Amino acid sequence: MIRHIKIVVFLCAVVILHSCVPTKTVREADTTVPDQYEGVTSDSVNTVSVKWRDYFKDEHLSSLIEIALQNNQELNIVLQEIAVAQSEVKEKKGEYLPFVNLQAGSGLEKVGRYTSQGASDANNDIRPGEEFPEPLGDFLIEARANWEIDIWHKLRNAKKAAVMRYLSSVEGRNFMVTNLISEIANSYYELLALDNQMAIVKQNIGIQSNALKIVKIQKAAAKVNELAVKKFEAEVFHTKSLQFEIQQEIVQKENEINFLLGRYPQPITRNYDGFETLVPETVHLGLPSQLLANRPDIKQAELNLLAAKLDVKVAKARFYPSLGLSAGIGFQSFNTEYLLETPQSLIYSVFGELTAPLINRNAIKAAYTGASAKQLQAVYTYEQTILNAYVEVVNQLAKIDNFEKSYDLRSKEVDALTASIDISNRLFRSARADYMEVLLTQRDALEARVELVETKQKQMNAVVKVYRALGGGWN
Predict the structure, then answer these.
(1) How does pLDDT run across 84-139, given as a tens digit for each residue?
(2) Is the pTM of the predicted complex or chain greater than 0.85?
(3) Which of 68, 149, 50, 60 is nearest to 355 (CA)?
(4) Which of 96, 253, 258, 300 is most buried, by the most CB atoms less than 10 A from its CB?
């Protein structure tokens, strides 16, 4: 039997509030992307379907990436953020389920004789011949349930928003993996480029040292003066100093890779032979619309947009009445001897309440306005993410094409300058060329070879970045 049921209903408030809920038009996200990348022919084949292990075939690079995916601290931090988001989903799910609590209590009470309760206790017996004890004890064991009926889907939408943010955090982790793989690959190719530059400098030191010996012989034969000798010596010292500059860059680049791998400084295993003849992996663009499915940052922005829409619904539902139910059952007695006797000590209750905000709704209005603004912000972020992804692909495609042409031309330049070193040396020995021409030719050849290696590194960098821009690496 229900002891008491109390329902507080603001019927007039429901009508007023429904007519007063603010409405706001939210701009829809524009997800339209061009059919092609700057007129480049596209098809359904997409490089991102290739796993990173097959895309980056250098076994040393693959080993470094494997270590980073296990140890990188920033990636591990992101994984903990996923765990936090998952806990929030469970929390929101629990909010629209009934809460059941078990409570127990005890106490003593002495009421005045000349009070209604005291007079009633004095004139009544617990049972024939047994008066109420004084002071009066109170012992309670009760299970109580509380449940908010989610009639406006406020709690369910809050749970769905938490799910969207959890999935968003997963996509954030995927985007982090893509960036991490890209960053390690770029740093690795930069390290190989530095190794090749070091080899070129050492080779040039040998050429210049040999030229210095020839100049000294010619000075002894009175064919050149001391100035020529000093110029050649200075050029050798200059080139030797480049060794240490490049060596410092190698140390920094190795430590940069070690940091990404989550380990302390140590040598990076690699093989720089054949770097200049390295052929970039063929890139299949796929369709621009596939960016929406392949880029983790786009999917993350989309999920955040969905969560923001649900937040608006949750904020709007706070204007409407909420229905709450509570019920309890247990035992209560003034003496522990009678506590579990039924039905005398049995208690139970059911309570229903319908409440709605009527006055001072500014806080709710502010929350709704803020949620609407965040939703619009999410729309702009989504559009910006799509645009940025498309621009990144176009830029990297242009880099691949332009650096390939630049590398071919620089290769011809290096061949011409390398040949000119021998020519200048022969002309100098026969007194048909000035020593400055020999020095300038050697310096130009050195710079051209270094720039050729840099161009190859930029070319590989573009290939890595277009793979990242298409959304590859995380799967």
Answers:
(1) 998 989 888 888 788 889 998 888 888 887 888 877 777 777 777 777 777 878 88
(2) no
(3) 149
(4) 300
